[in-house]
Amino acid sequence: MTKPRRTTGLFAGLATAGAIALASLSTAQAEDPIRIAYIDPLSGPFANVGDAGLKHFRFAADRINDEGGINGRPVEIVPMDNNQSASESAQLVQRAADRGIDFVTQGNGSDVAGAIIETVNRNNRRNPDNKLLYLNYAAVDPSLTNERCSYWHFRFDADTTIKLEALTNYMMERDDIEKVYLLNQDYSHGHQIERRFEELAAEKMPNVEIVGKQLHPIGQVRDFSPYVSRIRQSGADSVVTGNWGNDLSLLAREAEDAGLDVNFYTYYAGGLGVPAAVGRAGIDRVAQITEWHANVNVDEGHDEYREWVDAFKERYPDIDWYYHRVYNLMYMLKAAVEEAGSTDAEAVAAALSGMEFESHTGTVTMREDDHQMLQPMYISIMDDDVEYDAENSGVGFRTLSRIEVEDATSTTSCEMNRP
């Protein structure tokens, strides 16, 4: 059970009295920024992914600053290039601690996330007066909020198991799925998808045959034609993949060029180069399981939401507002710091743990037991008849199914050590 918590409203800062809070602080305090170290790839094969995430965080920070900051203090995003390396990420976490930075965020690579959790735990044990919080916006290995859970780690995305539960519940109702091929990156996230999908398929879809499965090196494949050939030879009608970044966009482009006639069920087809690579060839064929997409509830108004998305696109014409969970993360952090009255890691963690927040998709909750965000999920598919397209491709996503919070959750084995 999560403890009762003041609910924070959608775009809460847009109407707050930030100027009053600012005036109540000294000039020195007002000039002292709240810093968040952004640790993700800013070079190498996934540089485009890291750059997109950085732009999301900077945009959200600037909006918060325009509203008066957090307790009158500006927010500063400090980029740190980890080259998609777990060991380099661990070093950057320690560097952030040495610089007196209170918060670190990362999302690309669950192996990296695991290294960050271990480093943050070690730092907080050894340096009780210089603790850090890790705010995870995209690394989804379930172990991070189960056997490897930490009081100092909060995940704002849904984990792999939650997404697969929702996806297989949808797939089991379709009569056009008979043969599935599993293609994933060779690291913890890909391994988890392969293993868990096989278990869920046996349980929910006994008449569906898994005709092939393959893991490939992450960020190293430049030619996906051999993989596409194997999918074709298997006779699959559907492909399930957790690939992201160039590993998904290159796969999608090769499938299109080869005329591969299958449906793709993905985690990350909505951005980071994939819509631009696939274009109209993905209409009614490329689906994704996410906590949000740009056309969620657009028919219901949400003028403030449109203003946010449109302002981001005006500032960054070549990318879209893709990580709406960055909005949730930043404004929940703002609420937690304001409730705690400081950036002290232990006090902010206590405020975040169990917090409810009114997001664009409804109420989301940071589960107290394991610090996993619980939120509605959406299965959507590429379509050219939508309000917002993706990556200026002329194709966006429309909702196929909304999965409510109670059906988009999982149990946890977390036994958290609390201060």
Write a structural description.
Keywords: Signal. InterPro entries: BCAA_transport, Leu-bd, Peripla_BP_I. It holds the Pfam family Peripla_BP_6. Belongs to the leucine-binding protein family. This is Branched-chain amino acid transport system substrate-binding protein. The protein has 419 residues and is of the alpha/beta class. It has two domains: 222 residues, Rossmann fold; 161 residues, Rossmann fold (3-Layer(aba) Sandwich), CATH 3.40.50.2300. It is 37% helix and 19% strand. It is built from 13 helices and 15 strands. The strands form three sheets. The chain has a seven-stranded mixed sheet, with helices on both faces. A five-stranded parallel sheet has the order 2-1-3-4-5, sandwiched between helices. It has a three-stranded antiparallel sheet with strand order 11-12-13, with no helix packed on it. It is globular.
Task: Give a brief rundown of this model.
By secondary structure, the protein is of the alpha/beta class. The protein contains 13 helices and 15 strands. The chain folds into two domains: 12-158 and 300-374, Rossmann fold (3-Layer(aba) Sandwich), CATH 3.40.50; 161-290 and 377-407, Rossmann fold (3-Layer(aba) Sandwich).
